[in-house]
Amino acid sequence: MKKIILLSLALIATLSVSAQYYPDGRPIPPRHRYGYNNSHRHSGSFLDDTYYGFRLGLNVATVHSDAAILDGSDSRTGLDLGAVIGTRLTSAAPLYFETGLSYTEKGGKGNYQGNKFTYRLEYLELPLTIKYKYPVAPDITIEPFAGGYLALGVGGKIKNYGAREAYSSFSDNDAAFKRFDGGLRIGCGASFDMLYLGLSYDIGLANIGHDDFDDTRTGCLNLNIGVTF
Questions:
Q1: Which label site among 25, 139, 188, 219 has the fewest CB atoms less than 10 Å from its CB?
Q2: Which of 156, 148, 158 is nearest to 125 (CA)?
Q3: Nearest Cα to 57, choosing from 178, 187, 145?
Q4: From the CB of residue 16, how many other CB atoms can be counted at a distance below 10 Å?
Q5: How far apart are CA 21 and CA 36, in angstroms?
Q6: What is the DSSP string of 161-214?
Q7: Which of 22-36, 100-114, 178-192, 204-218 has the least mean pLDDT?
Q8: What is the β-pairing status of strands 157-160 and 165-168?
Q9: d(CA 29, CA 32)
């Protein structure tokens, strides 16, 4: 996991430099870069009609359930890696619709009948949010957002340390989970030129347990960084 994070950070840094000094595919000589940066710093490009970017984040996730065997209310950390694209909804205000695709790790930890267990739930996730970009300086914006997400389980393990057993997180087993998840997302981000920092919280609304009489829902706090073009 550390290698994935380091490689992702290196990729983000490379893309940031490439986009800054190779606009339209044409390189800017080092001696002209200072002048280029000053002439474009206040151009308002961060309020363009369409933008896209890459994000790398850390999740702090839980699974809350009425069923004791599924309740993982102690948090576990996981990776979040993806891409976003946004489009402006109206020329009257800097209001944007943002979506994308990410690989995200959720789950939780708990104890059942004296046995410790952990859940790692790996999803492909589709965010669907409305974002407002409020400029506070020529190259800085504060970006509150709200909306939802849809997720499909693609992998993960449930580990029962007492029985020393591990099995798939998504199966028809009553001690496992359904693949589909969805819910609400609220948060706020900040952009400085091309760099982005965001904090959000996912409130799971889908019952991911197999028992219709016991609610089992995910929750996830996410902190991410990235670049926006």
A1: 25
A2: 148
A3: 187
A4: 19
A5: 9
A6: TTTTEEEESBSSSTTSB-SEEEEEEEEEEEEETTEEEEEEEEEE-S--SS-TTS
A7: 22-36
A8: antiparallel
A9: 6
210 in Cβ contact with 41 (< 8 Å): no
User: How far apart are alpha carbons 195 and 224 in whole angstroms?
Assistant: 11
Per residue in 70-83, pLDDT (tens digit) is: 999 999 999 999 99
In whole angstroms, give the CA distance from residue 205 to residue 201.
Answer: 13
Give the angle 111-67-76 at the CA atoms, nearest 5°. 45
Q: Which of helix, strand or coil describes residue 37?
A: helix
* pLDDT higher than threshold 60 for residue 194: yes
- Report whether 210 contacts 193 (CB < 8 A): no
pTM for the complete prediction?
Answer: 0.79
Element (H, E) at 15: helix 2-21
